[in-house]
């Protein structure tokens, strides 16, 4: 493997991670846009052949003077995306949410529209749900793949601002400051969740892991919500709802899956 281009510059994270090459690159070639911290230092890596994952990560960190230590990186929140792979889920899901809008009943109508707006303005790409810490990559079998194609890599610092976002059947979807002692229920209450009798919430941890947290008064079992996590409050059927329970469950699952693949926001 030989890197043939290495550029460092300051710029906008949202642009760097969603900008595609003017000419499609061959799958025998490698290209990566790397964003380090926020506001980001942007680096472009190119090679004339496939590249190992650990080589890409270390090349990005060592391109700076002095080199950036792996100890400064928040590996839980680090993300790798395949920009060359089709990812139609956002378009398909938004279309279905729009079709069902008129079937949603109060008090969830506004939240449904709010979710559509949130998913429309966010950007998504196929995420590789694998560890990115070079120390882990080298010690776990199968975690150091050869990369062909076009990628985006996001490497935040541990010192970057830390938030948690609540989406779904809530009144407020603004990011909240992460608090070590907060449970998923605490964040949902801050977001003014609509159905306060829910027994479970879905958490998308920053590494992409999906968890179900019990939050009801009768089954509460507080679990850790990591900084950078997304909490999804599911939509539920109401007395006069014309959306059947099976379809609504599928919609909730599709939203969660989409959110796993969200590109970092500006």
From TrEMBL:
Signal peptide range: 1-21
Protein name in UniProt: Capsule biosynthesis GfcC
Keyword Oxidoreductase: no
Keywords, sorted A to Z: Signal
Residues of the Capsule biosynthesis GfcC-like N-terminal domain: 90-155
Signal among keywords: yes
Capsule biosynthesis GfcC-like C-terminal domain mapped to chain residues: 176-264
């Amino acid at each position: 493997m030989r890197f043939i281009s290495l550029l460092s510059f300051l710029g906008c994270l949202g642009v760097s991670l969603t900008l595609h090459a003017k000419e499609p690159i061959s799958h025998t070639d490698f290209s990566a846009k790397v964003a380090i911290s926020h506001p980001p230092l942007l680096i472009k890596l190119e090679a004339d052949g496939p590249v190992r994952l650990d080589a890409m990560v270390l090349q990005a960190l060592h391109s700076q003077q002095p080199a950036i230590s792996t100890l400064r990186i928040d590996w839980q929140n680090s993300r790798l995306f395949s920009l060359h792979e089709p990812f139609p889920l956002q378009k398909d899901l938004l279309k279905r949410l729009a079709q069902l809008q008129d079937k949603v009943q109060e008090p969830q109508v506004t939240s449904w529209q709010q979710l559509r707006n949130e998913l429309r303005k966010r950007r998504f790409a196929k995420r590789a749900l694998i560890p990115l810490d070079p120390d882990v990559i080298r010690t776990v079998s199968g975690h150091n793949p050869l990369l062909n194609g076009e990628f985006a890599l996001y490497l935040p610092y541990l010192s970057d601002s830390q938030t948690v976002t609540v989406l779904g059947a809530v009144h407020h979807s603004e990011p909240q400051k992460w608090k070590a002692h907060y449970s998923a229920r605490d964040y949902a209450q801050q977001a003014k969740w609509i159905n306060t009798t829910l027994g479970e919430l879905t958490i998308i941890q920053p590494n992409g892991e999906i968890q179900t947290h019990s939050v009801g008064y009768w089954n509460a079992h507080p679990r850790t919500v990591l900084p950078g996590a997304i909490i999804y409050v599911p939509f539920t059927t109401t007395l006069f709802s014309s959306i059947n329970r099976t379809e609504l469950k599928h919609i909730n699952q599709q939203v969660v899956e989409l959110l796993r693949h969200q590109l970092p926001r500006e």
